[in-house]
Amino acid sequence: MLVRPVLRDEHLAFVAERGSASFLQLPSWAGVKTEWGSESLGWFDDAGVLRGVGLVLHRRLPRLGRSLAYLPEGPVLDWAAVAADPAAWLDPLVAHLRRKGAFGVRMGPPVVTRRWGADVLKAAIAAGGAGQLADVVPTSVDALGTQLTTALRAAGWRAPQSGHGFRAGQPQYVFQLPLAGRTEDDVLRGFNQLWRRNIKKAEKAGVTVETGTTADLPAFHALYVETARRDGFTPRPLAYFERMFRAMDDEDPERITLLLARREGVLLAATTLVRVGRHAWYSYGASSTEGREHRGSNAVQWEMVRRSLAAGCEVYDLRGITDTIAESDPHFGLIQFKLGTGGEAVEYVGEWDLPLNRLLYKAFDTYMSRRG
Known about the structure:
Shape: globular
Largest sheet: 9 strands, mixed
CATH architecture of the largest domain: 3-Layer(aba) Sandwich
Order of helices and strands: EHHEEEHHEEHEHEHHEHHEEEHEHEEH
CATH superfamily of the largest domain: Gcn5-related N-acetyltransferase (GNAT)
Distance between the termini: 38 Å
Low-confidence stretches: 163-167
Radius of gyration: 21 Å
Mean pLDDT: 94
């Protein structure tokens, strides 16, 4: 394989031909993460055929000019081929990034290892005794995920850090709602009774969900800040969302959508929906404490599912969860809310690191931890 920079159009054309990829691996994401340097790379075989692409974000160490090269939820490759011969695919990438001054490489292969269906999880929670997903027998185990994990470790890559809760980078555990071959009625029947009741309650209360524009971003952001204050996380600034919408909309007018749930003109909930081909993501969400009894959050989620189905998506991705299923854990409410959709918990192989300069890599870890 030859790894070299590719043009934006080449990158996008490859993803379009493939059918889907993480939105974090598209050129537009570089336009969102402006504090990082970036480049689009392509993998070419001996015949000069493009076989893979990847968005690399470069985070530089102050004053040293060296960087961490990061491929979030990527690169976009034939991972079965990578697992069979990691050196053929990854060594050219590492050589290119080393020449660019990288002191380390981090990537997150979008390869599944295990899945837990809703029925299995509900039964485990009801029975008690299981604190984490690993304590529950999975619905399915993906052989490719196991093979790739073994191959990466043998090639010198460092496995994801173990530990409870969220960690830096992209989540290893997500919650997804399969949509392929299903109708709206099929999906709605898969929701639990509480979700169905709340959707109906929102309809009866007169909650409507509409498509927003960039002019609505300040209202969305105000609600998002309220949500952050209530739930105890640090909100991103309005400029971040303005940049996100500008970058993604320039790439594809259907890439990102702002949805607003209102009742009698009052904004109750708002979300951002991102779509790349057959995969849709619930990206950011916000809700008001006032008027929660009208279930605006359920209404806007249902509208995102409906739009994903109409667009031909095979997966509606509710993004990250932790690995906890213990009701005493503060993160339990997150998986409990998402479990109501009848979807499945999905474990990916996670983010893998390859230090190229161990001293600088350690220094970067220290620097980032001090930044918070």
